[in-house]
Every structure is written in C-alpha cells, then in structure tokens.
Amino acid sequence: MNTTDSDDILATAAGWRAAGELVAVATVTETWGSSPRPAGSRLAVTKSGKMAGSVSGGCIEGAVAEAAMKTIDSGTPQLLDFGVTHERAWEVGLACGGKVKVFVEKLS
Amino acid sequence: MTPETLLALEAAKAAKCPVVLATRLPDGEQCLLPDSAQSAELNEAAAKVLQSDESGTVKIGNTDWFLHAHNPPLRLIVVGAVHIAQALAPFAAPCGFAVTVVDPRRSFGSDERFPGITISNLWPDEAIDAFKPDSRTAVVTLTHDPKLDDPALDRALKSDAFYIGSLGSRRTHAARLGRLKALGHSDEAMARIRGPVGLNIEAVTAPEIALSIIAELVAVRRGSPLGDRVAKS
What we know:
heterodimer, A: 108 residues, alpha+beta, five-stranded antiparallel β-sheet, globular, B: 233 residues, alpha/beta, Rossmann fold, 2 domains, four-stranded antiparallel β-sheet, 8 helices, 10 strands, 38% helix
C-alpha cells in the first residue's frame, strides 16, 4: 500500500479505530508561502501515541498531536493556525516561513 | 468524522469514483460531493477541486468549506516487464500511480520478478484496449521490441493518455516514428510520444532511468515547464 497518500492515512486511522483505539485525524486545510505539505495532507494520531502521515516537514507535528489529544478527549474539532506571526509557531519552529491551517477532528 | 461518512468515502474509493469530502469550518460538519441536496455553488466548487486535483478552502456565502479531493489513483501502464520496469513499478506506487506491467512473455512478466505488482500477460494492444487509458493514465513502453512496443503506442495514441513515453535512443525512436506513420499516425499526433523517455538527467542505470521517467511524469502532471517538450526537435 502507498503510505504517503492521504487516503491511506485515513485507511490506517480507520483500521486503528476498528481495533478499538481512540483516534483523531488532522488535515491541512490551507497553506501560504513555503509550506512543505499541500492542503489535504493528513496526520492520524491515537490516544495511545501511534502516529501516521504528516501535516508539515515535522515542525508542527508535536503541537498538532497535542491538540489531537484534546480533541480525542472532548470530541470537539479544532481549527489550528500556524504561522510566523503566531507565537506558538516560533515555539514549535515553523522554520520554512510558511503558514498553515490544520483541522483536527475525532474519528467517532 | 462519523462512521457513515468514513464508510461512504471508503465505498467511493473502492468503486474508483471521484468524490470531494467537504468539511465546514470550524465546526466540522461534513458531506460528500457531488450531492444534489447541497447548493449548486458548493457542488460546482467541488467539481473544480476534482478537476484540478488540488484540495483547498473556499468561501461560499459566509461559510468556509474545506474541499478535499479524493480522486481515484493515476494509472501507469508499463509495457515490457524488463529490468527498468522492475525499478520503475515499485517507485511509481508511492508517487500516486496504480501500476500495471504488461508483457505477454511470461518468463519476463512473472510474480517472482514483480512482487506485489499487477501483471498482465495480454498482448500490449489488447491490454491497452482493456485499460481504456483516460486523461489520468500514463503509458510507457520499455521493450525495445517493435512487435511489443508498436501496438501499444498505436493504441495509446488513439487514447486520452496524459503521458506516452517510449524507451529507445534517438535513432530507435526515429525508426519507430516511421513505422507508426505507416500505421496512419500524423507527425502532430506522434509528437505526444516522449522519446527518448524521461527527463534528460543523463541516466545510465535502470534505477536512474526509472527516476528520469518518474521525474517527467511528475513534471507533466504538476505542469512544470520541464514537462513541456512538444514541438522541440
């Protein structure tokens, strides 16, 4: 299977869900400037700490995974905004100088 | 995402049916498009996203929707289960292509030589006819053997394939064009065939040639100037 395709990240997430894991899926919804992953790129995260796919070159994965835990607990989706003007972005280091929006939802 | 939406997405994927997963931001309400129950404006935006194969956020009225294209995979038909095909096939899959290797010579087109790759042992013309190449299909011939490559190219030229490539030196390619002309193909039509196949990166080994072919496929698909060689002599 092709594990770089966003479809397959969803299939992986669905497989985890079917196996009883608590799962959230993060999707890039908008990008500006130089950002490494196009809109539609997905990252799947489980409560137990499994990860598949990516929403960036690696620079915001940690922050997105942290937000995903909150969405898994609350069930409420989040729209995250990462960019150079955002305090959090400096903290997590969006070194490429781009901006991305990431939607995080729970797989119910 | 609800289990119903996930099932519907999986069903569309299994049926190779292009759909858009529309997500209303930021509350996460979702639907699959096209859907006549949704506004014409939303359906039209979804059709554009499928056409360009580029997902993105659009504003409809005062509402932001993330439109996520889920197109069936691009297809790559490789004619000739040769050494270069062994390097090309496993490399094309992670680049988003569903690959089929065609070779009627069963000693070449065997599962042992191509683990996990779809093989067809039909004659190339029959195989291409069966696949009905569309605008999301690429055809690459690698055999060097006119009796295998020519029928494949003849059929590919009659299709909407977005990429037609053929391995061979400039001299081999010139001879090939002469034979295809005799089959009734015009110079203009034959300009679609990329020969020698692949971007010119001075590739020598099989993996290098596979890399040059993949690079040109990506260049054409993504609209890079590197993919534009029509009408160059």
